[in-house]
């Protein structure tokens, strides 16, 4: 029984070199595939002081994650000195999660770098949330650094080019304003957009002009309008912070008050004419009624006169008329 066992052991010893050779060949083939597919990428990360686990690169492909995007993002963040905190910083796993959620990883990294250069407090979580909310996080950071100018009204979104308001004097003023805003990153998620800023500023300008006693005061000091509008806090609950409101152009329109007074006077004249016409028609009707009454009375008199001969004839027939004469004699 020992002899067969020894024979099997000898056979296994003969197969061991083949097995080792097979494993080595498989490893070499796998290494070659890795070097061909990820060698340049891994070497680029290593030379940029970014440690990437080789297996992570392989698993990224299995998870349908573009490894080049993740590695480039890590390299940019590391070179810019952004997200170095291992707990809240920029890690491979967090970048993969944002990529799989449909986020724009390069744009988020560029926004973080721009915010870091401008000394703006913006971490990866907030930047990723802004990006997933559908907002352009990089444009938001740029707007925070370089304020944006919005026309009020916006000619691209409205057919009107000026705001129309009427002072208490009745004179119309046509105004075009320019609003300088910068992004409020803390309220960017859920905050109102530019359309709300334009609507609020337009309402504030119209209200300020409407409360002015005279249009000339507005023409002399347009900055009163800007100050009055700014004091109302129109940027509350919006994604922007209003820096300034400047009156770019102001023109005099129609004298609405005079036109309204003229229209009212014309309406009063027409009303008086209508009343006079009604009184004249009533007088004519009353005259016709009086004429009808006179005609009726005349007809009554004629009827009475017609009855006198008949009464006399009847008296002759009865002989009462003679009796009456004798009695009188």
TrEMBL record:
Compartment annotation: Cell membrane; Membrane raft
Transmembrane domains' residue ranges: 15-38
Source organism, top-level taxon: Bacteria
GO cellular component: membrane raft; plasma membrane
Sorted UniProt keywords: Cell membrane, Membrane, Transmembrane, Transmembrane helix
Main location: membrane
Pfam hit, one: FloA
Membrane-protein topology: Single-pass membrane protein
Reported function: Found in functional membrane microdomains (FMM) that may be equivalent to eukaryotic membrane rafts FMMs are highly dynamic and increase in number as cells age. Flotillins are thought to be important factors in membrane fluidity.
Family assignment from sequence similarity: Belongs to the flotillin-like FloA family.
Assembly behavior: Homooligomerizes.
Protein name: Flotillin-like protein FloA
Organism name: Posidoniimonas polymericola
Gene name as annotated: floA
């Amino acid at each position: 029984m020992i002899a067969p066992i020894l024979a099997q052991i000898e056979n296994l010893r003969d197969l061991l070199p083949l097995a080792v050779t097979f494993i080595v060949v498989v490893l070499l083939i796998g290494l070659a595939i890795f070097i061909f597919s990820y060698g340049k990428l891994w070497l680029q990360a290593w030379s940029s002081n970014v440690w990437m686990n080789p297996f992570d690169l392989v698993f990224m492909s299995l998870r349908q994650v573009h490894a080049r995007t993740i590695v480039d993002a890590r390299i940019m963040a590391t070179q810019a000195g952004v997200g170095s905190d291992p707990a809240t910083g920029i890690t491979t796993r967090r970048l993969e999660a944002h990529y799989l959620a449909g986020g724009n990883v390069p744009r988020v990294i560029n926004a973080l770098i721009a915010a870091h250069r401008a000394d703006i407090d913006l971490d990866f979580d907030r930047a990723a949330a802004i990006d997933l909310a559908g907002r352009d996080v990089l444009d938001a950071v740029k707007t925070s650094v370089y304020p944006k100018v919005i026309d009020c009204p916006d000619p691209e979104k409205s057919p009107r080019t000026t705001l129309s308001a009427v002072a208490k004097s009745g004179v119309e003023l046509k105004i075009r304003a320019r609003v300088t805003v910068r992004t409020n990153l803390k309220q960017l998620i859920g905050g109102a957009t530019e359309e709300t800023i334009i609507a609020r500023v337009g309402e504030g300008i119209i209200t300020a002009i409407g409360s002015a006693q005279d249009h000339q005061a507005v023409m002399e000091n347009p900055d009163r309008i800007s100050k009055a509008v700014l004091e109302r806090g129109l940027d509350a609950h919006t994604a922007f912070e209003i820096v300034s409101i400047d009156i770019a152009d102001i023109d005099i329109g129609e004298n609405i008050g005079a036109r309204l007074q003229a229209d009212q006077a014309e309406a009063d004249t027409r009303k008086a004419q209508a009343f006079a016409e009604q009184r004249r028609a009533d007088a004519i009707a009353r005259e016709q009624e009086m004429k009808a009454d006179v005609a009726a009375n005349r007809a009554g008199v004629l009827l009475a006169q017609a009855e006198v001969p008949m009464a006399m004839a009847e008296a002759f027939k009865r002989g009462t008329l003679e009796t009456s004469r004798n009695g009188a004699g």
